[in-house]
What does this fold into?
Amino acid sequence: MSFHEGQVVLRGGAPLGQAAAALILIHGRGASAEDIYSLGEEVSRGVPAVALLAPQAAGNAWYPQRFLAPLELNEPQLSSALGVIGALASEAAQAGPGYEGVVLLGFSQGACLALEFAARNSRRYGGVVGLSGALIGPPGAPRSLKGSLSGTPVYLGCSDRDAHIPLASVEESAAILERHGARVTTSIFPGMGHTVNAEELDAVRRIVRGLAPGV
It folds into this structure.
């Protein structure tokens, strides 16, 4: 049964065939493609060679349970969501910048999905950004990841007391991704809450401008 395939994908910025970088923007639970698309516009302002792609989840949620639930409880929606991200990443890579120009960026549930996709589909990406998110699955769950992220820059930003994302999960995710070949930067903000701040946006801008310098 299809869940997320066929949903709207917001597209903007540079055409993929002319783009030096492509941002795949993944919204959180209860949010929309429009919400995360505006973040993509903000971090790519002044960088004309960036394509923006923001898929919409069916029912505004990529999977039904918490990200810490056993994986099978989030199926088949999780596999459908990962398939949508995979199709967009492949489209962007083949149309222009290659996978090394593709940046996976998500907030909250979308951050979890971006990180999980990168871990399961290891290669060199332009960047992976998880804002208030972590890898999907119970703490300490065994992972048989193949391949390597080959130096992909990964940025993890989160509060130290996020009501939805335990700090331990962010730290565990950072360690797993580093072992898997990523160059991980983790920023933990005391008392921030479940949101995005200016320092995180600046970190994303640096990743984008490293791929597609601005005018």
Remarks:
- The first strand starts at residue 9 and ends at 13.
- The beta strands are 9-13, 21-26, 50-55, 102-107, 127-131, 153-159, 183-189.
